[in-house]
Amino acid sequence: MQGIYVKPVRIVQTTFPSTLVVTLDEVKLCARMDTTDTLLDSTITAYIKSATKRIESYAGITIRETEFTGYYDSFPPVMDIRKQPNTAITKIDYYDVDNALQTLTEYMIQKLKYSANILPSTKTVNSYPETYYKTDAVLVYITAGWETADIPDDIKEAIKQMVVSMLQNCDPDVDIPKISISLVSDYRNSFASLEN
Questions:
Q1: Residue 59 phi, psi (nearest 5)
Q2: Whole-prediction pTM value?
């Protein structure tokens, strides 16, 4: 059946992790720089942030644990949430037919490699409650990404290699280096090329 798996109308990031994925000293060591030299610290910090975003976009992943809200105008048959890794649905709210905010307590989650599907609970006769006719009638609260201590070393290395390439070229817009692409290839979401 076509159209059964529906992505949110929009997904909004609601938390913005402040910790860097790699440290200034880690990048400096990778670039064979003097770790006591602080002249380029602000540039390196900006490059780390930029490289992190670009690797996330390329691979279709969320590196640091981050919260999002997905919005639907009504309940579709299956809600398709394409955030990974470690996708967790923390809560689902909806506006009922009287336009009162309610929390959905009965639903099932099907976790896949690159996404999570939310389905009606068998206890609710396989259907969701009716919603008020409005934009953003259903709100899905999502968490995805790794805790800082659990970020895989190859992702950190991919970011370091990209920052080194930015420093060598004095350009934050350089192409993602082949070494970085290779390091994140096992994490690349099969939907990434469709969504970027």
A1: -85, -15
A2: 0.87
